[in-house]
Amino acid sequence: MANSDHYRPLELDTRYANAANQSINVNGIVYAYRDLGPRIGIPLILLNHWGAVLDNFDPQIVDGLARTRRVIAVDYRGIGGSGGSAPVTVAEMAQDAVETIRALGLEQVDVLGFSLGGFVAQEIALQAPGLVRRLILTGTGPAGGQGIARVGAVSWPLIIKGLLTFRDPKTYLFFTGTGESRQAASAFLFRIKERKKGRDKAPTLTAFLRQLKAIKAWGRQPPQNLDEIKIPVLIVNGDTDIMVPTVNSTELARRITNSQLIIYPDAGHGGIFQHHADFVSAALMFLDA
């Protein structure tokens, strides 16, 4: 049985909302990150969605994972507190991540990628297979996947709707229209405002558009040989993902031999945020297996 001390509530200064902003210089580029959790076992790297900065990681998920392992959340190049220009290809983002992981002195990591982060996580596993032990892919899909190149066309009307209704666009982009899902959206949006001091910089419009270019390129490029990913992979999504259609999660599970698939009902792109407690439990079980 696991030591129960690992599951005690996090102390105030170890919660993600209070984690120190840190930075590391990698080949002349400064990358912003936050680092928390016990310094035991294999560290878990978190890679987030299009336009996301450090404050867009769900504190409930980060804190839940950090109870038993070291968790490192990273800003992409050109986003938030990281310097340089945002890359326009997923391959460049993955190369940045690999170099940053190595600069942190880590020989092996687990990686959790959400949405765009899931594209980058796949690319890391293919670029540097010995670096990644286990992979968690959420709200994401393979290169050339169905509907991925249309993420901008799907997103812009809902971003405008958010502005017109004075709601965060993630209400419409990440969640379904049911009462339960909308309640989950409100709770998630409240959680990501938990941090009051030392918040990350918002992404610039230029960086936002450059990342969109990378997403479109990923959606249009030829499929990769995912048979080359031999490590265990956990794939998670909601059943009504309109940004990276859920069929892409099924396709990932079909093409990655050593994979598990979880699809949450009445949930959208942000299914892991709507079902954060269940997701943390499943992710820890997967990482500890």
From TrEMBL:
User: GO MF terms on file?
Assistant: hydrolase activity
Q: Which ranges carry the AB hydrolase-1 domain?
A: 43-275
Q: What residue range is the signal peptide?
A: none
Q: Specify whether Hydrolase is a keyword of the entry.
A: yes
SUPFAM superfamilies registered for this protein in UniProt: alpha/beta-Hydrolases
Alphabetic keyword roster: Hydrolase
Q: Which Pfam families match?
A: Abhydrolase_1
* InterPro entries tied to this protein: AB_hydrolase (IPR050471), AB_hydrolase_1 (IPR000073), AB_hydrolase_fold (IPR029058)
PANTHER family, alphabetized: AB HYDROLASE-1 DOMAIN-CONTAINING PROTEIN, HYDROLASE, ALPHA/BETA FOLD FAMILY PROTEIN
Please give the name of this protein. Alpha/beta hydrolase
Source species of the chain: Pseudomonas aphyarum
Lineage, highest ranks first: Bacteria, Pseudomonadati, Pseudomonadota, Gammaproteobacteria, Pseudomonadales
